[in-house]
Amino acid sequence: MDADEFRRAGREMIDYVADYLENIRDRQVTPSVQQGYLRKLVPEKAPQTGEAWEDVFADVERVIMPGVTHWHSPRFHSYFPSATSYPAILGDILSDAISGLGFSWTSNPASTELETVVMDWLAHMLGLPEHFLFSFKGPGGGVIEGSASEASLMTILGAKAKAIRETKAKHPDWTDGQITDKLIAYYSEQAHSSAQRATTLAHVTGRGLPTDEEQSLRGSSLAQAIEEDRAAGLIPFYVLATSGTTPHCAFDNLTELGAICQAEELWLHVDAAYAGSAFICPEFRHWMAGVECVDSFNFNPHKWLLVNFDCSALWLKDMSLISQALDYNCPIIRPNPDSGEAMPDFRHYQVALGRRCRSMKVWFVLRMYGVEGLQKYIRTQVGLAKEFEKLVQLDDRFEMMVPVRLGLACFRLKASGEANMRLMKRINDSKRLFLTHAMLNGQAIFRFTAGASRTNSADIHHSWKIIQEEATDFLKGESDQKK
Amino acid sequence: MDADEFRRAGREMIDYVADYLENIRDRQVTPSVQQGYLRKLVPEKAPQTGEAWEDVFADVERVIMPGVTHWHSPRFHSYFPSATSYPAILGDILSDAISGLGFSWTSNPASTELETVVMDWLAHMLGLPEHFLFSFKGPGGGVIEGSASEASLMTILGAKAKAIRETKAKHPDWTDGQITDKLIAYYSEQAHSSAQRATTLAHVTGRGLPTDEEQSLRGSSLAQAIEEDRAAGLIPFYVLATSGTTPHCAFDNLTELGAICQAEELWLHVDAAYAGSAFICPEFRHWMAGVECVDSFNFNPHKWLLVNFDCSALWLKDMSLISQALDYNCPIIRPNPDSGEAMPDFRHYQVALGRRCRSMKVWFVLRMYGVEGLQKYIRTQVGLAKEFEKLVQLDDRFEMMVPVRLGLACFRLKASGEANMRLMKRINDSKRLFLTHAMLNGQAIFRFTAGASRTNSADIHHSWKIIQEEATDFLKGESDQKK
Description:
Two copies of one chain form a homodimer. The first copy, chain A, has helices at residues 3-22, 53-64, 86-98, 109-126, 148-170, 176-182, 193-202, 219-231, 254-264, 301-304, 320-326, 359-393, 417-429, 457-482, and strands spanning 141-145, 183-188, 205-209, 235-242, 267-271, 296-299, 312-316, 398-402, 408-413, 436-440, 443-449. By secondary structure, the first copy, chain A, is of the alpha/beta class. Chain A folds into three domains: 3-77, dopa decarboxylase, N-terminal domain (Up-down Bundle); 100-357, Aspartate Aminotransferase, domain 2 (3-Layer(aba) Sandwich); 370-482, Aspartate Aminotransferase, domain 1 (Alpha-Beta Complex). Chains A, B: InterPro entries: Aromatic_deC, PyrdxlP-dep_de-COase, PyrdxlP-dep_Trfase, PyrdxlP-dep_Trfase_major, PyrdxlP-dep_Trfase_small, Pyridoxal-P_BS.
């Protein structure tokens, strides 16, 4: 493909993307294909000689689209949203063209420097403490990770290295393995599985702690666990608090947890993967009260801030605690020049050596939407979830199970969890909507996100109507069976 | 930005990308900026209201480009190459638009299924053993990781879990920590720092082993280490062999290492990050003789196979050994349907839960170049490195230090390593070329990659002429100093 062909094909692709996203309501939200469908549509091996663009492009509709779950359909209410936006796509195109890996300042100065700038911009937007800013000139700063899981892994490994160092100072005869056997990390029972995953990868014990009636991890729960575990000879070292849990969008109490972690010298990490984007609106920041006490804070602009995957923003109060644990020195990498402002070598803060210039898409999004544009986007989506909540409350057959906090509604048919699961299967099998469930007090409930970027009020009403229709048929079927 | 604006801006960006890549020879390969340059060019905070596309777009040349190291300039001879190609960029645009995360089959069937297909296509192209293919219907298969570092981490964690299980069967009273203290992994002293990094992240001991006169790790070296370490009470469990080392593009002896690992029950992983792409040409496959004995094999299409970062292809003889170690169950994820062909849930084979559809760009590249087009690309670049080798051999002041194997030339000025470093600094400071060094027998030598995608014979001559000119001036300066 030469440059002229690329110019033509690129225009076709840009138009295809615009058509796809603007008309996404017309597509069935989840595919009807069976497992293994795609292999039947393509050759067993790569072609020996190159094919024409037209043939490849035509196969997008023939091969790919029949098997796509359309995350940006307004009928998609599953998981948490995945972001896409026109400015982010443009930023990614440029990043792909430059394709210069920014593992050190020298390897691509613009990539490293832009990342420090957009991380400071984001920190300002969220109202994070200034010790997380590069411009503060302390040991703190931010880095773009691939995912919240990677952020949790980085911070737990940093905390583990610190805990081992400190324990060895007291017990020089203990080995790393003996100390690791005693290390214990905490998170709420409602935390995302990436919390438990981080402990698995770091090979330390993880303990899920009970939450209060608002699904929030409180200080008392943590304090009790620390006391029990210390008495059992364990070494508590790390707490992962969640701001906006996956099942119910609940918020752990950072003020209480922070005070305990400071007193007990535990690392406190905040996973705000989904909800962090909402903190650009001051009215939601009460949920991050206490953030000044945390050691690290992470959220995913690729979930709700219109930046395409992958882009997970992680701030550290002391960046050196990660780089010390993970120092990544590759002999062929030229050292940073001494001149000017010292810049981080971002390879020391992630699993990989190489890295894309992910800050480009962030920069494009922040500039083209502006802070107010993004605030408006978040508020609109929260409004849609609240609108949905009202619709649920108007139908006696249903009940809200958790008050809508941001863009997630947790509700159920007034029936057993098992009945709710059957109704959900019915709805999902209809391919008219796509929903997932959560567990609450041992019972399955509906979990409805309002987060696809083009969703509007009419879409919310449309989705609710489908749920009502399916519920009517479902209840009729249940009642017929009983007869 | 609405759809019409995106259509216009997208065309501008596509044209910009084509212009950038086609005229990249005109840009200074490394930037002249000082650290901290970028922050001075942008506001301290994100704009309150959205800006016009024209202003954002204009800042690409004003803010970004002055600080870019142009990896695709034919004057770029550092590190190993980073791939970019027009078909890959088009694939990424589509993937960004769909933006559906393929962590399970249900979450995006097309993403999961296309990945199984392109991994099989790549395995066929490289001539890998059939037990790595999904179509073989065994426990093997492939997965796209973000980097070779992540592939090493996944495999060492899989091997560690297996070793702990097996050791516990013999010593039920030993704790995980006590066993981990005894685990030891091996790699060659010439291995990439990601090998040592993987041991750091997995918290096991790593040992670099000496290589032969061709920088190759041989069986005798491994056998001796295993014997020594077992005698010292350690538990050898994992070997990372390199196909195409970073400093010299050397190849570890897989036949010898494979036989030992099978006899001694060690996991053998092959990191062919750079050189793996060359195995699509049968004439280079003698370097992977013995691959039928390895447990896992990884290479980076994002280095040399024209697929944009990130795309690191990892094959496993038994995928369950990774998923068992890392099982990633998120309650809100709907289980795979039972019907049809069983598909992997790719979240079990990586650090993150979320994942982009990276197979799209692979599919576009393989189809639009075809196997022969990609073979031609590899052979051209190997030819350029060999052409460079001949030029070096014609100048008595220089000598080749390692025969050119693929696209890397290791040479030096006939002088001390220290003098070579000073000459290299002079060349890099001129901003006319960008080179890095390697160490050989304790001395610094030049490391010259021919790998930017547009490099041609005239470019190689041009670069060599610059090196000669700078050497002449350098030697004159040295000689003047002595007077």
